[in-house]
Write a structure and sequence with these properties.
Structural class: mainly alpha
Order of helices and strands: HHHHH
Low-confidence stretches: none
Largest sheet: none
Shape: elongated
Number of helices: 5
Number of strands: 0
Length: 169
């Protein structure tokens, strides 16, 4: 385990960021990100905490948008139905975030990148780690010719055989 400038294991920052993301602590996650970037100055730890911050930012934004859309919350009968629908959607998002966090925790403890699907690329771009894709042009293909069919030997047309005529008749 690699230790930072202050003697704290660098994976601790990543684990703490993921725990704060699970708890929905946007402000504390932002403060942790600022500390890791400014004080520790370690790229790996900064990317992991940045992914955690993006994750908590995403979930809080989705939660706020769903609360804004739920305009029928105060209506007696219709509000109950809409509240139930929006709560189910928010619960599904929370379960997906929990799965991402558990997978990321197991990877971070081993010292690997957390690899949260979209957020790892976003954090990499923030550090200028853009994956370059090199596209090669395929060589031009030769024009296709129709397949050559084997020719059958030509035999002269046969004449219909007529029975020999009897000259005696």
């Amino acid at each position: 385990m690699q230790k930072g400038k202050y003697g704290i294991c660098l994976s601790f920052y990543a684990v703490l960021g993921l725990v704060l993301a699970f708890l929905g602590q946007t402000t504390l996650c932002a403060l942790l990100l600022g500390f890791v970037i400014l004080a520790e100055k370690d790229e790996w730890a900064s990317r992991q905490v940045m992914q955690s911050f993006f994750l908590v930012l995403f979930t809080s934004t989705i939660s706020r948008v769903l609360n804004l859309i739920n305009i029928f919350g105060g209506v007696p009968v219709v509000g109950t139905v809409f509240n139930t629908i929006f709560n189910v959607v928010e619960s599904l998002i929370s379960i997906a975030v929990l799965v991402f966090i558990i997978i990321a925790l197991t990877r971070v403890v081993k010292g690997h990148d957390s690899g949260i699907p979209v957020l790892s690329k976003l954090a990499g771009r923030a550090f200028g780690l853009v994956e370059r894709r090199v596209y090669t042009q395929a060589p031009p293909r030769a024009p296709q010719q129709p397949p050559v069919m084997p020719q059958q030997p030509q035999t002269p047309p046969q004449q219909p055989q007529t029975p020999p005529q009897n000259p005696q008749q």
